[in-house]
From TrEMBL:
Protein name per the record: Arrestin domain-containing protein 3
Gene this protein is translated from: ARRDC3_3
Pfam families attached to this UniProt entry: Arrestin_C, Arrestin_N
Taxonomic classification: Eukaryota, Metazoa, Chordata, Craniata, Vertebrata
Domain of life: Eukaryota
Origin species: Liparis tanakae (Tanaka's snailfish)
Residue ranges crossing the lipid bilayer per the database entry: none
Stretches assigned to the Arrestin C-terminal-like domain: 138-265
GO biological process, one term: protein transport
SMART domains on file: Arrestin_C (SM01017)
GO cellular component: cytoplasm; plasma membrane
UniProt similarity note: Belongs to the arrestin family.
Length: 274
């Protein structure tokens, strides 16, 4: 076998910030290093930035795989999950006659950013109520009225909600809440869902025939990935689940959808209407 004239091909880029992330509008710059063992003819040297989303998981009756390529300017953030990933690469490709192309690539961490103004509907407070009549080993009714500050939050922010709990039952109850994340992977008509609780809290017991009001702030970790709703095969969603721990009964619960955006933008202060 004849030794190759190409000893090495290497592509690198220059970070634009301390987090080593890129977003829409950033310029990717770097260099391509080519080392040759001898003189040779080159047809072309290509450098390109590309992205790909792919899902793959195995079930008892076979594998499920799907790949998504998009030229949409509204690109989803980089992502890696248990059954799929969204990857961006800076790739160099050297083409020569009657030879296999020589390639090298390096991964780019891309973070999608909100363009323009945020949908005003996402900035409005959410409000839901739930009540339940208890039977068998418990009697009376329990009820909760919950208000959430808004729908959209940013990495590292505090998610604030208020709750009014009425315990007209014969036993103590507890307020519980959970901030959770849901990954959905889609391949044709099949899907794989992975849900993870990020933070769970339990309040103090509320005695029978009592009403209490709570204000809670749930810290959103600064390293959670942003929500993804602009990819056809991978979805990243968040939610807040507020529920009452009632003995010997199904726990009444309320769920709020949550949208998490990159911390590169912080919204104007927003609170509850009095």
């Amino acid at each position: 076998m004849m030794p190759s004239a190409v000893k090495s091909l290497k592509v690198t880029y220059k970070p634009v910030n301390e987090e080593n992330t890129f977003t829409s509008g950033d310029r990717v710059s770097g260099e391509v290093s080519l080392e040759l063992a001898k003189n040779c003819s080159i047809n072309a040297l290509w450098v390109k930035f590309k992205g790909k989303a792919e899902v793959l998981w195995t079930e008892d009756y076979g594998d499920h795989r799907a790949t998504h390529h998009s030229k949409d300017k509204n690109m989803p953030s980089s992502f890696k999950g248990v059954a799929g990933e969204i990857v961006y690469l800076l790739e160099a490709k050297l083409s020569r006659s009657v030879r296999r192309p020589t390639k090298d690539s390096t991964e780019i961490n891309f973070v999608s950013k909100e363009t323009g103004t945020i949908d005003p509907e996402l900035m409005k407070p959410q409000h839901k109520s739930k009540d339940k009549k208890l039977k068998v080993f418990n009697s009376g009714r329990v009820a909760m009225d919950v208000k959430l500050q808004r729908t959209v939050f940013f990495q590292g922010e505090g998610l604030q909600f208020r709750a009014r709990i009425q315990n007209n039952s014969s036993r103590p109850i507890k307020l519980k809440y959970c901030f959770y994340r849901k990954h959905t992977f889609l391949a044709k008509r099949n899907q794989h869902v992975n849900t993870e609780d990020i933070l769970k809290e339990v309040g103090e017991p509320i005695p029978p025939s009592a009403e209490e009001k709570f204000t809670r702030v749930v810290p959103i970790p600064s390293d959670v990935e942003p929500s993804i709703d602009n990819c056809s095969i991978i979805k990243v969603e968040y939610g807040l689940r507020v529920y009452l721990d009632v003995k010997y009964a199904f726990d009444p619960k309320i769920k709020f959808p949550i949208v998490i955006l990159s911390a590169r933008r912080v919204p104007a202060a927003s609170g509850f209407n009095r």
